[in-house]
């Protein structure tokens, strides 16, 4: 097994690199075993499979994912491992931690699943002393499977929301699924504004550091916006700290920073405060830009009720002529879809107007009182948005990933230029 260390691992036969190790993952729709022969033809040095494929250079294992996790465990030599999960803000918190701890390793992008985590470690880890790993879940047991092998010294649970509730089945499964990270961790970083989480961690005899809004060992006290700058004040135990961030960050982001600071303290590391000045929101994740006198918020990467809530809250705090939104539905809500989108409608009614992209599951339930236009065609919706916009407006673009709301955004930008 160890002779595979140092090689590139891949699981998408379309992205084979010469000499890589192809791992045949069984998905819900596609079975990687069907592409193992093709992978060798394209230049893979080995294929890892769960059955005899009668191929040269095949490695047969009982379970490919368990094999990857065990191999990643051998590869990972970090003295401190910080694990991050939550219903929202995982990736941003991971990026903040990576900035606060210069020279640390982080799992890239959204490589946060039982496949993504070990492959990230095998392909990207370069013996850094601190490793920051993002743990995601769709259903109960997902996090447990990863962290019983890749165990965090410090476990951070940011929040527990209703994302993927249609897949998880109910809120109980989401909550206890997230708590699996605490079960595996030695030091717990928890949200002091979540009473249920507090009750849970108080039953565990482990060191703890809390964070929250005006509560916790690391607390966000206040924040404000001037132009494209966010000013925030934190309290770390008994000491206050003022922070200036060179971008627009919402309350969720600022709480994520508090969580990251708490995690650094829990890991017994030094906080690089000046590193926060370099943090920027990235494309698709609450990224603000000015196009033709219109302030556009590109938040197209994904959507949840909590993310909509903090986005609208921020828009109301920033000076603008009008505050508008172009929205689509929140996916993976199952039987809760109607309730979720009714709650979303109430959040959107705080704005001056809403454009709705129809034709997707759940969009029929988005019915705020301030609807300007509903449309199924993205080109037509973009045209209606551009015709309505005026200099000084702020407009938010947001929906679940599968909607591909960025297609509407790009068309609007093109017409505004």
Would you mind describing this structure in some detail?
Helix 2 runs parallel beside helix 4 and helix 10 runs parallel beside helix 11. The chain has three domains: 60 residues, MurE/MurF, N-terminal domain (Udp-n-acetylmuramoylalanyl-d-glutamate--2,6- Diaminopimelate Ligase, Chain: A, domain 1, 3-Layer(aba) Sandwich); 211 residues, Mur-like, catalytic domain (UDP-N-acetylmuramoyl-L-alanine:D-glutamate ligase); 130 residues, Mur ligase, C-terminal domain (Protein-Tyrosine Phosphatase, Chain A). It contains 13 helices and 19 strands. Strands 6-7-5-8-9-10-11-12-13 form a nine-stranded mixed β-sheet, sandwiched between helices. The termini are far apart. The longest helix has 16 residues. The mean pLDDT is 95.
So, the CATH homologous superfamily of the largest domain? Mur-like, catalytic domain
Strands, count? 19
User: Which oligomerization state do the chains in this entry correspond to?
Assistant: single chain
CATH architecture of the largest domain: 3-Layer(aba) Sandwich
> Largest sheet, if any?
9 strands, mixed
Indicate the topology.
Elements: E1 9-10, E2 21-23, H1 36-41, E3 46-49, E4 58-60, H2 64-75, E5 80-85, H3 90-100, E6 105-106, H4 116-124, E7 130-134, H5 142-147, E8 154-157, H6 165-168, H7 171-184, E9 187-191, H8 195-202, E10 208-213, E11 218-226, E12 229-236, E13 239-245, H9 251-266, E14 287-291, E15 294-298, H10 305-317, E16 323-327, H11 337-348, E17 353-357, E18 371-375, H12 378-388, E19 394-398, H13 406-416
Helix pairs in contact: 2-4, 3-9, 10-11, 12-13
